[in-house]
Design goal:
The structure is a single chain. This protein is mainly alpha-helical. It has a domain of 45 residues. The protein contains three helices and no strands. Helix 1 runs antiparallel to helix 2, helix 1 packs parallel to helix 3 and helix 2 runs antiparallel to helix 3. It is elongated and about 60 Å long. The model has no long low-confidence stretch (mean pLDDT 95).
């Protein structure tokens, strides 16, 4: 436990941020997992909707700074690549 007043405040701030960030990170993970399962089953319109929802969640997480923008870009790219391969 911190004894310094500024560190006590910093710990409170970090905890608030951790809880807030966890929501966006969890949402992104959930939507990406749903998109992956949809890509494996491969049902046309539902798959595209699931991938677009995952892309949106990744963008949201990157905008909030929860994940790095390049991390989001890489994951979106992989999803879109699989979607394009499915369309062929």
């Amino acid at each position: 436990m911190a004894n310094i007043k500024s560190q006590i405040k910093r710990n409170r701030q970090n905890e608030k941020r951790r809880v807030r960030n966890r929501v966006f990170r969890g949402q992104a993970r959930t939507f990406v997992a749903k998109a992956r399962t949809a890509l494996e089953t491969g049902t046309g319109e539902d798959t595209k909707a699931a991938v677009l929802e995952a892309v949106s969640a990744l963008d949201r997480a990157a905008t909030k700074g929860v994940i790095h923008k390049n991390n989001a870009a890489r994951r979106k790219s992989r999803l879109m690549k699989r979607l394009a391969a499915l369309a062929k």
